[in-house]
Amino acid sequence: MTSSPPPPDPDHKPPEPSGEQRLSARERNELDELRHRVSALETGGPAGAARHHWLRSTGSVLLILLASLLSLLAVVAVWANSIVRDTDRYVATVGPLASDPDVQKAVTNRVTTAVLAQIDVDALVKDLERAASEQGAPPRIATLLGDLGGPITSGLKSLVGDTVQRVVSSKAFDTVWVDANRRAHSALDKALTGNATGAVSAKNGQVTIDVAPIVAQVKDRLVSAGFKPAARIPAVHTDFVVFASKDVGKIKTYLRVLDIIGGWLPVIAVLIAAAGVYLATNRRRALIGAALGVFAAMVVLGIVLAVARAVYLDHLPVGTSEDAAATVFDSLVRFLRAGVRAVGALALVTAAGAFLVGPSRIAVLIRTGCRRGIGALRDVAVSAGLPLGPVGRFVHRFKRWIGAAILAVAAVVLFTWSYPTTWVVVWTVVIVLVAFAIREFLDTGAPSAADTSKPSSPAPSAPTPSA
């Protein structure tokens, strides 16, 4: 006969849950934030310890300043290297000039002058006089023809100018311009050293492009229009000035140096900045300082470009179209400006990210608000039946490693992108934020003691047989 289990003791109380078990999800988040702030404050060390590390702090500041300066040179180096080495990049730089009205006007004037210089108006008048005499025209007609030099010159200038304008404004000119620059790009490296003799040359402080193919097209069109004397126009090699400056020799030297070190300078700048951050006693603040230093360098570079543009336009050779020169300058530095904006945007994003992971009240409020919002969305999804058990525990366990992997992938994408623009940086940041939000959404937190050790229900006792 089995005995029934003893009746429960009315004075016995189940063990109370620990402090961690009594905390709600919101309270656990607040406790984590407080621990994070205390940890961040403790890493700074006491004031006395900081004074003992003044050498480290000084070295960190010097390295960060050097990295900021090198970041400025790195942007210029990458731009110079792309202009010299990348044919597609060069064509993308100068290609739009073919459809620019100011450049078209300058080319039209240059080619028109070159063509008219090859036409002998006096010979044309004499030919008319001879033809009139052969036809038996009165002497007065021959005298009148001798006075037609001015009107003939004006008519020829109008005819040639209109023909050149039609050639330059046609789609065919775009093709000729792009193809000519693509073929000429192989000579650009020599042009930067002043030793070129091809379609691109650099001499007498000018970088020029030979537009002889355009003159040939104008000649053919004039002949087709019935102006037979144009057939006697010889091959004319006339130059369109792309860049003119008395300091072009110095510019060529600087660009040549940047071209040589362009591939390594960005890597060197990043490594020096990383060394400066690692050497600092407060690495988060050092990272913010490094990012702001790079941003300041980009601002300085932008100002230098604006000043250089104004100085360049003020020192143009006589007879050069200022509008066309401004357009060419803006086109040549277009990708440089894009690089400046992209690096500046990335520096600001890095500084903002380093600030938001810190212990300041604003950073804590932003993190807490985002965490609560994502947590509320996760609770709704779980209540609706979304299973996050094993996945949530895995994400919680490796949360820091997952965050590091997201940042590493973003860094690799930006660093290996050929020519990142501001939009590339913006979209990369958006994708990173979405990835972090997904990580937070999947993090269900550490399993509570009630989940890990659920008490099994007591086995039903066997019925007591009656006596």
Layout of helices and strands:
Layout: H1 19-22, H2 25-43, H3 47-52, H4 54-85, H5 87-94, H6 101-116, H7 121-134, H8 139-146, H9 149-168, H10 171-184, H11 188-193, E1 200-203, E2 206-210, H12 212-224, E3 239-244, H13 248-261, H14 265-279, H15 283-314, H16 322-332, H17 334-356, H18 361-383, H19 389-397, H20 399-416, H21 422-442, H22 449-452
Antiparallel strand pairs: 1-2, 2-3
Helix pairs in contact: 2-18, 4-5, 4-13, 4-14, 4-15, 4-17, 6-9, 6-12, 6-16, 7-8, 9-12, 14-15, 15-17, 17-21, 18-21, 20-21
Describe the structure.
This protein has a three-stranded antiparallel sheet with strand order 1-2-3. It is built from 22 helices and three strands. 71% of the residues lie in helices and 3% in strands. The termini are close together. The chain has a domain at 89-254. The radius of gyration is 38 Å and the shape is elongated. By secondary structure, the chain is mainly alpha-helical. β1 and β2 (206-210) form a beta hairpin. It has helices spanning 19-22, 25-43, 47-52, 54-85, 87-94, 101-116, 121-134, 139-146, 149-168, 171-184, 188-193, 212-224, 248-261, 265-279, 283-314, 322-332, 334-356, 361-383, 389-397, 399-416, 422-442, 449-452, and strands at residues 200-203, 206-210, 239-244.
